[in-house]
Amino acid sequence: MIDKGDAVEVEVFDEPALAASRHRAGLRRLVALQIKEPLKYLEKNLPELQRMAAIYMVLGGSLEELRDQIIATALDRAFLVDPLPTDERAFKTRLDEGRPRLNLIAQEVARLAHTLLTEQAAAQRKLKDSRPPKDVADDISAQLQRLMPRRFLDSADHARLQQLPRYLKGVVLRLDKLRADPARDAARLAELRPLEQRYLRRLAELKGTVDARLDEYRWLLEELRISLFAQELRTPQPVSVKRLDKAWAQFTS
After folding, report:
1. I want to staple 98 with a disulfide (CB 3.0 to 4.6 A). Which of 79, 182, 192, 207 is the partner?
2. What percentage of the chain has pLDDT greater than the value 70?
3. 228 CB contacts (<8 Å, ≥6 apart)?
4. φ and ψ at 3, to 5 degrees?
5. What Å distances lie between residue 58 and 70, 119, 171, 182, CA to CA?
6. Strands (E), the chain
């Protein structure tokens, strides 16, 4: 089932990951077609939308794109948690369950989007004002692009998105410390770089194919950045170069 805007259609895909993504989008459209009035209300009443949109334009997006991203994420969380409904009866049950909580979930998603955009803007300002060495600037710029792509609410599940403010704060703290001890930053970047480069090589090899273990490794890299550059923000579990080497060995075995 795929999204056709004002309707949905059945289509067959060879790639399971693509099929799953398109199927979810189709179900989301089917939900939206059943709750047109509540969605109209949400579109007009998302908190801080104008303010968020002003920041979002830096990522190259528009107010409408940001609004649609927030609402799509809220629809997924309210109606389309796994396992997805597979028949008409299950779909109607999801509609009944999701309607009462949609507005609260949408408000929560909007608040998270606002926080993420605000923290991203702070990190970008700090990067510009600090004028770090080129290798550090390139590293942080690439990190920010991975953390906050244009469709940032689609880039990770809700649990991961909630960790992004900490990662973005970590960028600011790293830049705060850089001037006092650039040699320390350089040494830690040298530790990080080979671990990240092998991830990026493998990601390129997959050519868009989703791999859950590689995705898990990607987030371990972000936690390692916190451990190396912003220890005061803490990590949920111990993380080190050795632990990532071990995780990589398991991933590639």
Report:
1. 79
2. 92
3. 188, 191, 192
4. -80, 125
5. 17, 13, 18, 29
6. 2-3, 8-9
